[in-house]
Write a structure and sequence with these properties.
Order of helices and strands: EHEE
Structural class: alpha+beta
Shape: globular
Distance between the termini: 7 Å
Strand content: 25-35%
Largest sheet: 3 strands, antiparallel
Helix content: 25-40%
Strand order of the largest sheet: 1-3-2
Oligomer: single chain
Radius of gyration: 11 Å
Number of helices: 1
């Protein structure tokens, strides 16, 4: 399995963590699937993103 990255990067870790929490609690938007792992990562330029693994 491969990581699935969300399409948007965020300026703060808090914003990315809010999306990660929403994915953990509600599943992926408009589906009933819940990912096994949800991870907030930081890019080399200092922005934050969310990736998850089924």
């Amino acid at each position: 399995m491969a990581w699935v990255y969300t399409g948007k990067l965020y300026a703060t870790e808090f914003q990315a963590d809010c999306l990660a929490t929403r994915i953990r609690e509600e599943g992926i938007f408009f589906t009933s699937r819940f990912p096994r792992y949800v991870y907030v990562y930081r890019t080399k330029k200092g922005r934050y993103g969310v990736k998850y693994l089924w």
